Amino acid sequence: MAKISDRVRGLTAGMGDGWGVYHRARALKAQGVAITDLTIGEHDIRTDPAILDAMQASARGGHTGYAALAGTGDLRDAIAARVTERTGMRTTRENVLVTPGGQAALFSALMGVMDPGAEVALPDPYYATYPGTVRAAGGVPVPVPTRPEDGFQPRAEALSAAIGDRSAALMVNSPNNPTGAVYGAETMDGIAEVAQRHDLWLISDEVYDTQLWSGGHLSARALPGMADRTLVVGSMSKSHAMTGSRIGWLVGPPAMIADLVVLATHTTYGVAGFVQDAALHALRLGPEFEARIAAPFRRRRAACLELLGQAARIRAHPSAGAMYLMLDIRATGLSATAFAERLLDERRIAVMPGESFGQAAAGHVRVALTLPDDALLNAFDSMLSFAEEIMA
């Protein structure tokens, strides 16, 4: 067989993709084993029927050919209006590129800010795909550890210390997956100061901006002096339960967006028109609809934190946003991977080991709050009793 490229072979740098427990849980389910799956951020509801009706009507109405590469004008306008309203930062369609999901927006942003071999600093813990996406775009990821005792807030001095001659960008995520941290004003000001002092691009993944449980969301692009050096990743997946529709966006300076439309011509060739029309319909449902999609996770977070307050071996970091809880399991004496593997084997509960998201998350597991309330609380009860048993 001809040689497979070093770039593809090297996406995970020989460290695995972080999804081992997830893949093993899926394999067990395929064999008919009953698994309680708390690994991924997939809503336990499906996309709202009204959105699917709009998608079907658009497809049957003929919007099945090539769609505008940057996104339809109406959808770009709607995204721009939403961003303006939520951040206070004036945004027009020229600032918006519609993409096949937030992951494609992230890849596009990295392609736009880096030359081959450039470095991208990213706070650790990070979403599991970040380092591989940086490598896929030809760059070098530089993890910057954050600390549990700081609530996983990145420190400006640590970010600055990670910047070198080949640094091109910082990449941040708030509300954060996996930790649930929401970056406050001091953190965001520090990130902006580092980006400006070192003349870096800032890529800000804000796909969880509707899932806020305490505090407020600060968009990096709205900070003083940051509009011309910030690219914001957005998505319909989390806010509207449209994960499978694969539609997101990138917001940034018009010149960058124009160049990334050229990139789209040579990669994705845009997003299906009927999916774009469904997204437009979804956005027009307004913030009340988005709040309804987020409400179960707010409720489940509170219930799980109450239950965890009685636990001796597992401690929760009280997430301020996103659909996860990061649990400190160090008191069990097991590594996060060993804990997750045994939990799957002995209780048939699947969670993500913290090491899937970087070394700063060692000793932690991430739990997705993506089951109906009773089933989720039963799973937490079982996990807590498991932690007690292994210490007995």
From TrEMBL:
It catalyses: L-aspartate + 2-oxoglutarate = oxaloacetate + L-glutamate. CDD domains: AAT_like. Its EC number is 2.6.1.-. Its cofactor is pyridoxal 5'-phosphate. GO terms for molecular function: transaminase activity. The keyword Transport does not apply. Pfam families: Aminotran_1_2 (PF00155). Residues 35-379 form the Aminotransferase class I/classII large domain. InterPro entries: Aminotransferase_I/II_large (IPR004839), AspAT/PAT-like (IPR050596), NHTrfase_class1_PyrdxlP-BS (IPR004838), PyrdxlP-dep_Trfase (IPR015424), PyrdxlP-dep_Trfase_major (IPR015421), PyrdxlP-dep_Trfase_small (IPR015422). Keywords: Aminotransferase, Pyridoxal phosphate, Transferase. PANTHER family: ASPARTATE AMINOTRANSFERASE. Belongs to the class-I pyridoxal-phosphate-dependent aminotransferase family. This is Aminotransferase. It comes from Jannaschia ovalis.
